[in-house]
Amino acid sequence: MIFQPLLRLGPVRRFTRNLLCPVDLLGRPLLVKYTRDPDEAREEVRGHARMARYYRVPALHAHLRVPGGHLIAYERLPGATDQGLLLDLLNADEPSGDLHTYMDQLTATYREVILTTAWPADPAHVVRKLYWDRAAPGGRLDTYYAGKDFLIADGLIDIPVSRLDTYTLNINGRRHHLDWAATLRRLRAHFATAEPVWAALTQGDPTDVNLAHPLAWFDYDTAGMNSIPGEFANFLWYASALGGWLVPTYNPTAFADHPATFAHVPDNTPELRRADVDHTTSTIHIDYAPRLSAPRRAAVSTYWTQLVQPIRDRLWPGEDLANLLRPYLAMRILGVYNLADLAPEDRLVLLARLALAMSPAFDPATYFCPLESPCPAP
């Protein structure tokens, strides 16, 4: 007879402020999440209930208050090293048939649910954590940047970011302008208005580690009525910048169970080719080559053509997507990582990306490189 232990604990993993641990209890596979924040725990449980009405989610088995925090126990879906997430389909040299099928299913589900649940909502009634709260007084914009200054890129462009408005930015041969203080004011003002926003029931943080393969959704503290442009900006920025480049670079422990991620970081890391200042013309020259692996490019392309464009045609016919996406994209660039904490090369590329997003010429269709062909060389 083989003795099966009543309780078996797997390795504990940290994701932002939360801990996750696979547990086998009486032969039942569970995924246990620990969080210290009681409000976040409540939102997680409520969000799961909202999601379960429209999306495939693991069963919620228990929610327990414990000393110092809360434990939430979910059904543990099948998975293994480099298996079980959208991330694993993206960690490949070429897009697979499984990835194309997955993205078709993902976008079809989102189209149906978004169009079923969409309505113009008062901003007070949408999930505010990722955008409104971060732009509000005392939020991340203030915590990261209020009353602070830092160099554009130490050792490369030794000019304070507060003086960006006094320079022309020549980015890959095109002239741009970025006023740092005005950009922060603009974002704070945008997310302080009471103007209704189109919202729909979504998970709110659709990263490639929050989407399971086969298709299911994890992580529910931002689930509910989310801004639709915010949902789009979140997926597009994560798939094209955060997931393949910045997060594995600055939070590598999150990928301990998916080590194939690291082999593909070079495929998704922009190449900085020039960074210098012409003081006679007050011009900062930044040349960089954007990089995006073929699987990530395929995922972004499918998401754009099969979800963003059809939803735009139904909800905002004829409206410029650039104006809808710009404030949310800028908040993802500024409100996830504190730019001052990043390596100078990464900070410089992100400031260039911010300048492009804030430009009147911003074109999201090329910005996220949704086409299957390589991004055009600078």
Could you explain the architecture of this structure?
By secondary structure, this protein is α+β, with helices and mostly antiparallel strands. The model is unreliable at 370-378 (pLDDT under 50). Strands 1, 2, 3, 4, 5 and 6 form a 6-stranded antiparallel β-sheet that branches. It contains 13 helices and 17 strands. The protein has helices spanning 38-52, 86-90, 97-117, 132-135, 140-145, 180-190, 228-250, 260-263, 265-268, 294-315, 321-335, 344-358, 364-367; strands at residues 7-9, 13-15, 18-25, 28-35, 60-66, 69-75, 119-121, 151-153, 157-160, 168-171, 174-176, 197-202, 211-212, 216-217, 224-227, 271-278, 283-289. Helix content is 39%, strand content 22%. It has 2 domains: 7-75, Phosphorylase Kinase, domain 1; 86-367, Aminoglycoside 3'-phosphotransferase, Chain: A, domain 2 (Alpha-Beta Complex).
